[in-house]
Description:
- By secondary structure, the chain is of the alpha+beta class.
- The protein has one domain (about 35-160): Nuclear Transport Factor 2, Chain: A (Roll).
- About 35% of the residues lie in helices and about 35% in strands.
- It has helices spanning about 10-30, 35-60, 65-70, 85-95, and strands at about 70-75, 85, 100-115, 115-130, 130-135, 135-145, 150-160.
- Strands 1, 2, 3, 4, 5, 6 and 7 form a seven-stranded mixed sheet that branches.
- β4 (about 115-130) and β5 (about 130-135) form a beta hairpin.
- The radius of gyration is 22 Å and the shape is globular.
Amino acid sequence: xxxxxxxxxxxxxxxxxxxxxxxxxxxxxxxxxxxxxxxxxxxxxxxxxxxxxxxxxxxxxxxxxxxxxxxxxxxxxxxxxxxxxxxxxxxxxxxxxxxxxxxxxxxxxxxxxxxxxxxxxxxxxxxxxxxxxxxxxxxxxxxxxxxxxxxxxxxxxxxxxxxxxxxxx
Length: 169
């Protein structure tokens, strides 16, 4: 018997593998089907409202509002690359460690993938953190997921500073 370097899968197992692959494809594709136009418009307005609510909570250091917006497993990647949990985010807001004086949002794009909304924007920020000045231009991504009861919560956030050509750290 010649060895080809490839493993042969018995016919019964091939059928099982093909069935599982089809189930995976249909299981992923079905939740991601297009949202009806009217519902998409309504949900877009809801996400825009939540984005405005998030902005207001940051500016006014409203811990209760932020707590309601963030999912329990929320995780952020800050502009300096550190991870920040929901508890850490709320603690920073509560203590005043992060002070945002102004936050102007532009170029907001919202895309939907089933029960997930992906928001990208540009932010002009003026503020400070314990690490120093935060003032500048940023691009960010925020991810919302609709839970089983229909409530949208932020599960992820990442911000990256926009640097001018030739600008160093």
